[in-house]
């Protein structure tokens, strides 16, 4: 616990000294302020009688809309935006953790402590996850409170959806640590991690891609990569499905099945093991 606490303190101080922490939460705060000022709702007896989005009136066609359904639909759609935003910001804020630690002088100071390399790396991983997680729940929690304040509708699923987003961040960060240990480059870590993220999105349609290929080995390769790469598209759909509850279409609800989470978690665990092995064998 002492090692974890020391690394957590070190990561937060380093993020503050490099303005990463301030920029991280400043961008989220701007997003929250824009969101809070952009939406004005006119609620009468539990129904939506009028709405203004970004200063423009939304035509209601003379019909009143249930505020419960409106909030549920809004939160479901917005959870997809937060999925991309939170995972994007998290990697940019934490990708430097391993390359910075491996710089000459810094790594000497770390290794001079009576702490094993694996414990050092894993405690830094947890510290980075805490940094990313604090912003995720700050962003989602603030938006959830704003929606609750403006509509008086409470949907805990939107708040709990942040845990699914944090799961994806944990897997991305594990992959980022492997690249960081291997290359000692922050830029390469960011590019490789986000490339893996978008590659996983493309592989959602792996069956259609494989069917369009002319050679059998190419189709086999695509299907194999699908089971190896994190299911970023399925987990994004699972976030929406979880927030939507019973209102989600059947195809999207299928993404809440355990298999995408299991294979993605295995990928993250393998990445952490590989990062620990590489870091233990690396000469400094």
Instruction: Please give the number of β-strands.
Output: 4
Oligomer: single chain
Largest sheet: 4 strands, antiparallel
Shape: flat
On the 0 to 100 scale, the average pLDDT is 82
- How does the helix and strand content classify structurally? alpha+beta
What number of structural domains do the residues give?
1
Q: Could you estimate the helical fraction of the residues in percent?
A: over 70%
Task: Give the percentage of residues in beta strands.
Answer: 5-15%
- Tell me the series of helices and strands, N- to C-terminal: HHEEEEHHHHHHHHHHH
- Intertermini distance: 26 Å
Number of helices: 13
Radius of gyration: 22 Å
Unreliable spans are 42-50, 53-60
What does this structure look like?
- It is built from 13 helices and four strands.
- Helix 6 packs antiparallel against helix 13 and helix 9 runs antiparallel to helix 10.
- It has 284 residues and is α+β, with helices and mostly antiparallel strands.
- It has one domain.
- The longest helix is centred in the middle third of the chain and has 35 residues.
- Strands 1, 2, 3 and 4 form a four-stranded antiparallel beta sheet that branches.
- 33% of the residues are buried.
- About 6% of the residues have low confidence.
